[in-house]
Design a protein that fits this description.
single chain, alpha/beta, Rossmann fold, 8-stranded mixed β-sheet, two-stranded antiparallel sheet, 8 helices, 10 strands, 36% helix, 21% strand, binds NADP nicotinamide-adenine-dinucleotide phosphate
């Protein structure tokens, strides 16, 4: 698949790198085009340029930028993004009492704001729950069962694209409902980070009953 990656930071490197290693054509776009060139070289991308350039390259386009920036960038590049799948991995979080807090209004999600900003694109929320460094490990490193990647999407084509992108990393896709449930994925990130900061392991809160695996 051809994949545009907007951003040159941790998530752009981690996911763009994983997709390039899996044989996909990755196009890195940054507001700093030198940083885009460096990242493209590092991960073996097929090309690099501005965010506008990369937004017009992929069948799927990852927004790997801060959450408040993502809808702004989607609006700026709405023309180029029309007809493409936007993959939103952002977390709208800010430090708050006892951990991190959501910065979105109750019930709202960044994914929804992106959809409103680029109405011609299909949006999927995914890849926001684990730390960027996790994508450097092959799925086999996690044990017998490959980790799952929850996603929220409305459009069948977006579901196809995200399924391919998740599978390319060796993980298994976990449908988590329509895009209007993306706020729950974003809130889950706040929960998970709060538990980490408190010294806990969030995965231990979801044990399988004996005999169910
Ligand atoms: N890091 C993680 O472990 C992790 C895990 C899950 C989800 N996320 C989410 O993924 C998103 C990206 O995180 P990250 O760790 O990759 O962040 P990061 O390393 O700070 O990189 C952010 C990127 O966004 C670019 N950017 C910032 N403002 C911009 C603007 N106005 N226009 C264009 N580009 C802009 C930055 O460009 P410059 O370098 O020029 O500033 C940089 O390339 C965030 O929303 C975060 O919540 C992160």
């Amino acid at each position: 698949m051809r994949i545009g990656v907007l951003g040159t930071g941790g998530m752009a490197a981690a996911l763009g790198g994983a997709w390039a290693r899996a044989g996909h054509e990755v196009f890195v776009g940054g507001r700093d085009t030198e940083a885009a060139e460096v990242l493209a070289g590092r991960i073996g991308a097929a090309g690099h340029g501005t965010t506008a350039w990369a937004a017009g390259r992929g069948e799927a386009v990852l927004l790997a930028v801060p959450a408040p920036v993502a809808p702004v960038l989607a609006r700026e590049h709405a023309g180029a993004l029309a007809g493409r799948t936007i993959v939103d991995c952002t977390n709208p979080l800010a430090p708050g009492p006892g951990g991190v807090m959501l910065t979105t209004a109750a019930g709202a999600s960044v994914a929804g704001l992106i959809g409103a900003a680029a109405p011609g694109a299909r949006v999927v929320k995914a890849f926001n729950l684990v730390h960027a460094s996790m994508w450097e490990h092959p799925a086999a490193a996690f044990g017998v069962t490959a980790p799952a990647v929850p996603f929220c999407a409305d459009d069948p084509r977006a579901v196809e694209h995200v399924t391919e992108l998740i599978t390319a990393t060796g993980r298994s896709p976990m449908p988590a409902g329509a895009l209007d449930r993306a706020a729950y994925l974003e809130a889950t990130a706040a929960f998970v980070i709060g538990v980490w900061w408190a010294g806990g392991a969030p995965s231990l809160a979801f044990p399988e009953a004996p005999g169910t695996t």
